[in-house]
Design goal:
- This protein is an all-alpha fold.
- The protein has one domain.
- Helices cover about 70% and strands about 0% of the residues.
- It is built from three helices and no strands.
- Helix 2 packs across helix 3.
- The longest helix has 23 residues.
- The termini are far apart.
- The N terminus is likely disordered.
Length: about 80
């Protein structure tokens, strides 16, 4: 029982620190975002969109790339 409490507490602390650190991350410049959109478009063409619309897939994919590079996520794709 103690182990479950410890694991749950550690998981919650990790999620909390992630949420706080997401606010501390810098915003990516538009050029980097556009590079990720191009990359994600190629991924969608090669591998499909996993039943998402193309725009939904691109937003998820771009945000995954931004996160992996230490940037804040975006709420919508640039036009």
């Amino acid at each position: 029982m103690k182990m479950i409490t410890l694991v749950s507490g550690a998981l919650f602390a990790g999620l909390l620190s992630f949420a706080v650190s997401a606010e501390d991350r810098p915003e990516a410049d538009i050029e980097l975002i556009q590079e990720f959109v191009e990359y994600c478009t190629e991924v969608a063409e090669d591998d499909g969109t996993d039943d998402l619309s193309l725009s939904e897939f691109l937003l998820v994919c771009v945000n995954q790339e931004l996160e992996s590079e230490g940037y804040k996520p975006i709420k919508k794709l640039p036009e």
